[in-house]
Amino acid sequence: MTTVSRMPGHLIRRLHQISTQIFTQRVREAGFDLTPVQYATLDALSRSEGIDQAGLADAVAKDRATIGAVVDRLEQKGLVARGVSKRDRRARVLAITPAGNVLLAGVAPVVEGLQREILGGLDDHEYELFVELAAKAAEAAIAVTLD
Predict the structure, then answer these.
(1) Among 3, 47, 77, 134, which residue has the least CB neighbours within 10 Å?
(2) CA distance 59 to 97
(3) CB of 23 within 8 A of CB of 36?
(4) CA–CA distance from 34 to each of 8, 25, 38, 81, 107 (Å)?
């Protein structure tokens, strides 16, 4: 019988907790006020100018209600702007603001730097293998949920 501490679901949840804790701590230490989901949102918007909220939710892998609250908060901070779609005047599109781009450029090196810390017990080969396997598992899970 497998103990819970060796079950993938438990380990994934635990790594998520560790990841969030390290992210929050390092980003705050660097002087930024940003959550992991806010960072992912800004990153997605920087790559997909004019995306709508549903598309953004898919890009960040969050539900629409959650991403709506995230966008509201980022809009209040002046980091995201909502606009009217040029193709459909009823639709709203999202864009990262110049202030959002400045923040993203400043915090990106911090976020990139903390990635190894999340998996601090792994050597270089193990780290690369973990990332490869985690990406494979995530892609397979996404394919199953889309069927």
Answers:
(1) 3
(2) 18
(3) yes
(4) 28, 10, 6, 17, 9
Residue 143 forms part of a structural domain: no
| Burial class of residue 80 (count of CB atoms within 10 Å of its CB; 0-12, 13-18, 19+) | buried
Instruction: Look at residue 124 in the predicted model and tell me its pLDDT.
Output: 95
**Cα separations (Å) of 132 from 6, 69, 83, 127, 128?**
20, 31, 37, 9, 6
Quick one: residue 20, left, alpha or beta (phi over 0 = left, psi -120 to 50 = alpha)?
A: alpha
**Residue of 7, 109, 2 whose CA lies nearest to 15:** 7
Distance CA 119, CA 95 (A): 33
DSSP state, 61?
Answer: T
Global pTM value: 0.88
pLDDT in tens, 54-104: 899 999 999 989 999 999 999 999 999 998 877 777 778 999 999 999 999
pLDDT in tens, 37-48: 999 999 999 999
Evaluate whether residue 109 is within a structural domain.
yes
> How does residue 145 score in pLDDT terms, banded at 50, 70 and 90?
low
Residue 51 placed within a domain: yes
